[in-house]
Amino acid sequence: MIGRRTGVSRVLHWILVALLALGGLAVVFPIFWLFSVSFRPASELNVLPPTLFPVTWTLKNYETVFARAPMLTYLWNSFVFATVSTLFIILTSSTAGYIFAKFRFPGNNFLFMLVLATAIVPFEIYMVPLFLQMNALHLVNQPLGLFLPFLVLSYGIFFMRQNTITSVPDEILDAARIDGMSETGIMIRLVPRLLAPAVSALAILAFIQAWTAFIWPLLILNDPKYFPMELALSQFANTGSSNFGVTSAASVIALLPSIIAFLFLRRRIVEGITITGLKG
Amino acid sequence: MHPLAAIRGVPRRSWMRWRFAYLVLLPTLILFTFLRVVPTAWAFVMSFFEWGLVKPAEKFVGLDNYIQLLGDKNFQTAFTNTTVFAVATTVLSVVLALVLAAFLARVVRGRTGGLIELLYFAPVLVPMVPVTLGWREIFNYNHGVLNAFLGIFGVNRVPWLSDPDMALVAVIILSVWKQVGYNMIILIVGMRAIPQIYEEAGAVDGASAWQRFRHITMPLLAPVTLFVIVITTIASYNVFTQVYVLASDVQGSPGRLVRVIVYDLFENGFRFFNMGYAAAEAVYLFLIIMILTLVQFRFLRGSRAE
Amino acid sequence: MQHLRFGKHLAAGAALLIAVSACGGNNASAGPTTGPGATGGPAATGPAGTASADACGTEPVTLNVWGGYPEIDAAYKKAGDDFKATHPNVDFIVFSTDLRGFEQKLTTALPSKTAGEVVIRTTNFLARFIDQGLIDPLPADIKAEVTADGAYAPEVVKDNTYKDDVWGMPIFTGGTGIYYNTDDYAAASITTPPASLEDLAANARKLAVKDGSGTLTKSGWSLRLSGQGSGVAEKFWILLIQKGKTLIRETAEGSGKWVAEYDGPEGQALLGMYMDLLKEGVDSPNIEHDAKAFETKQTAQFLRESWVINEIAATAPDLVGHYATVSPPVGDILTTESMFVPAGAANADCAWEFIRFMREPEQQMNLTKVSGWLLARKDIDLTQFLSENPTYKGFLEHPDNFQLYVTPPIAEFDEIETKLATHLVDAYADYENLAGKPDAIKGLLDDWAKETNDILSANGHYGG
Which helix (H) or strand (E) holds B218? Predict the structure, then answer.
């Protein structure tokens, strides 16, 4: 803090803290509310004024959800989808980023500009032709059809190229070459160690992107056994006459992995998001 | 001098190195071409055709799709809604994020600050569908918490989801709520990267906190602010999930569709089978995003130069 | 490449047609003898039973049954279990989402050949897929049964006719009834059920309940004011029929040329009525609507299909005995949901065999009992069912000269109806400005009708 801190300014400071904290609590309220409602019996759903916590707690809503839909399968589908997507994006982005950063070859600039140009085209623009392509390959309603568009990330290539330039010095590469290390060896064993922080940041971005994907799964999948959580939840909420207690319970199940991940990997995630955001 | 400097004399652009580079790039570039370049190019090509799902390239129609869209009521509504949504969401989420960042990066720091930061950041990480379902109930006219809360202050019940204007406002509230934490965290990092010495110099010169923020922090923060604005604008123009879920056709629940460009595009392509028409709509969306991004860059670069 | 596949597909379709017509010869000659016996059951199912063993083979087969009405799933599952008794190698996966989501799925799944082996929807909705050769033609024996005299109402056959051919095996129908809360009627001293559109509106004005602050707490009539897809326009259409008009009219029977009819004086009056009721606070966009509102006693009257009867029994048992249904006074839309097999589906023969099975009286009755939707066959006697379930009166007993309309058999009708629905939703939301302004209302209807006629022209169906 700049300047002296008088008694008055200290009071002001704590008022400010209180206001900010109050705002913060208001921000998490909708998430809290889902939890709170999910434990209420049907009779408490339309009570006015609403109480902050259930008067009688019940697990009935969760029982209904699990009886009606295989929620764990959906979570597992999301997990597999996000993991495959993350692994491929890391693999394709870091190798391509490394090559673009450290190798001079005919077409280097052109190819990189091509990648960069597509980075600014949002998915929604080309999803219709992409769907037709998948259809031509008979990949509609196939896990592969779901995964494919999520195996590369234009921004990831750009991001890894920038990071390679800043954190992989030519000297180290040259030293390794003198030591007789092959180019493949350098790329697979040496470079990843230098790029670890960037890779973990990109992994977080890629994982969240696939975990929260909605419109592509909606388009490409028909069979509920392949549905990731987001799509499955939206279908669940629109099917049958489920009351809001049940919908909330399903939503809580869908939210829980994100919340747990956030509690344990908080610093990593925040760092990852800011790094991928700011190096752009 | 580095002992390895001598190696630099060796010609690098040897064929072996090229081959290595091409081999490594090849799989990625194939995927990339197939999944990004080709479909993007096709979107442009299709937009000049009458194009069905199983009847591709039925008829070349030139600019007809584009012209017809301009007179299409649904597209006009979608365009207006999306623009209002994007502008409001961007302005609100960036301004709020700036305020929060200013306090959290400069005034309230340490553990307390970190905890508060986390509260605001929480919505960023939760997936869109469950929280939209939560908000849908919060916005409920009769027994929603929001109207109950506003009722304490004597505000009449607001038809959040059934009135066309309020439904748009509801989507904006939800989206700002979701976006503000992301913008805030980026801005906080940006502010912390500005050396304290500038502000201290300002303080010595007798500038007030607000003057220091306005004339020292803000200009230095301009590139980060620009980034946040561009990202939020692009994301807002592509809004879909929350609109789709919020207006889901549950029996008897009041909820109206806020028609946005991506929804309209989806309907034209996959309900009415006008793929070419949908492609032209996608190209419009792309042009809007392109132009806005360029304008924002120009505008902010201009303001920084001055 | 796509052309090529399409061609291949046509060839496959043609081959199937030949095959079907070949065995159709047999059945057609057998038709007249088994036809009348069909209601008898065993006589008709005997031959089908023997054919079935071949249709499904002995290898494990999975049939995916896709529908847009989750409340019927139990009936299909039961039918699947019964079917397994004679076909132990066949497993069933029944999959339903809400109708709008289901339609969206069909539009991507049918062209990509990833839909279920049995798909349940209306012929009209599937018309554009039929146009593109994506739906199997009806096997000749089923077609003979569907078109046999007295087997189905003529409107059902008409609703399943597209381009001079009958498609799909009718499974259930959606007719409309007026639901009214008898307690509310008694409280408002209304003694007779509504016998006209004017009655409905007049009753609604007496039935609406407001709280101290003037906020509507119970609507007098829950109008359909919002929602995606074409539903809003369909409800408007049903009310328009009570005024003797329809959405689009064929210029001459069988001419294939159509013109918008909803923009006439009757349509203007009807839209005006919506606006007046909203303005007077008889209904409001802000409160619960439809079945949910009726079940929670937040509305006194509304129009819906018969499935609500079952939902009320399940979710609002305290309402049973405190409500009744009555037929719409003048006419109704009869929509027929039928079973289809997508072209090129795996195990298509077995899928058709299951569809034949679903036609049997026992399964038809079970569907009605489980879901509340009315079975499609006309040759099954429902007198006893009605006496046991008097709330179905509004769906089974109609006034004299009751007019049944069916969905126009043109592929673009869904687009016309969906776009009209979008306009109606916007207009209803603007009731403050539109109530009592017939000129503004006429202007709107003229604009919409122009769009409708333009869509008809673009498809070569405009006859104005």
Answer: helix B218-237
Nearest CA-CA partner of C281 in C328, C223, C235: C223
Average pLDDT score, chain C: 86
Please state at what angle helix B218-237 crosses helix B275-305, rounded to 10 degrees. 170
> How crowded is the C-beta side of A130, counted as CA atoms within 13 Å?
26
The alpha carbon of C58 is separated from its chain's Cα centroid by a whole number of angstroms, namely: 36
Euclidean distance between CA atoms B258 and B237, whole angstroms: 13
Handedness of CA B15, B18, B22, B24 (dihedral sign): positive
Burial category of C427 from C-beta neighbours within 10 Å (exposed 0-12, middle 13-18, buried 19 and up): buried
Q: Provide the Cα torsion C405, C407, C413, C418; round to 10°.
A: 80
Pairwise CA distance, residues C161 & C156, whole Å: 9
Instruction: Show the DSSP H helices in C57-153 as ranges.
Output: 73-86, 99-109, 123-131, 140-147
Beta bridge partners of C405: C333
- A279 pLDDT higher than 60: no
Q: Output the six-digit token pair for A38.
A: 């999910």
Q: Is A136 on the interface with C (CB under 8 A)?
A: yes
B interface toward C at CB cutoff 8 Å?
A: 52-56, 73-74, 77, 141-142, 156-157, 159, 162-164, 247-257, 259, 267, 270-273
Confidence of residue C88 (pLDDT cuts 50, 70, 90): very high
Query: Phi/psi class of residue C373: alpha, beta or left (left: φ > 0; alpha: ψ in -120 to 50)?
Result: beta
Report how far residue B47's alpha carbon sits from residue B275's, in angstroms, rounded to the nearest whole number.
Answer: 8
pLDDT at B54: 66
Cβ of A141 within 8 Å of Cβ of C112? The answer is: yes
Contact C65, C83 (CB under 8 A): no
H or E stretch covering C248: strand C248-250
C40 residue type, one letter: G
Please say if the pLDDT value at position C230 is more than 90: no
- Do residues A160 and A202 touch, judged by C-beta distance below 8 A? yes
Nearest CB to B186; choose among A3, A151, A277: A277
DSSP 3-state of B200? helix
Residue-level pLDDT at C361: 93
Q: What is the pLDDT of residues C184-198, one digit of tens each?
A: 999 999 999 999 999
In sequence order, which residues have a C-beta less than 8 Å from that of residue C456 and are 6 or more positions away? C248, C258, C259, C260, C410, C412, C416, C462, C463
Rg (CA), chain A: 24
Beta bridge partners of B148: none
- The confidence band for C364, taking pLDDT boundaries of 50, 70 and 90, is very high
Residue C66 contacts residue C116 (beta carbons within 8 Å): yes
Bridge partners (DSSP) listed for residue C302: C179
Q: Residue A145 corresponds to which amino acid?
A: G
- Can you count the helices (H) and strands (E) in chain A? 13, 0
Say if residue B92's pLDDT is above 70.
yes
Q: Nearest CB to B22: which of A105, A129, A174?
A: A105
Quick: pLDDT tens for A108-151. 999 999 988 888 888 989 998 999 899 889 999 999 999 999 99
CB atoms within 10 A of CB B92: 18
Task: Please identify which residue in the block is written with the tokens 């301004």.
Answer: B95
Comparing C-alpha atoms, which of C349, C95, C175 is closest to residue C357? C349
**pLDDT (tens digit, 9 = 90+) per residue, A25-62?**
999 999 999 999 999 998 888 777 888 999 999 999 99
Residue C248 tokens read as 């689009």
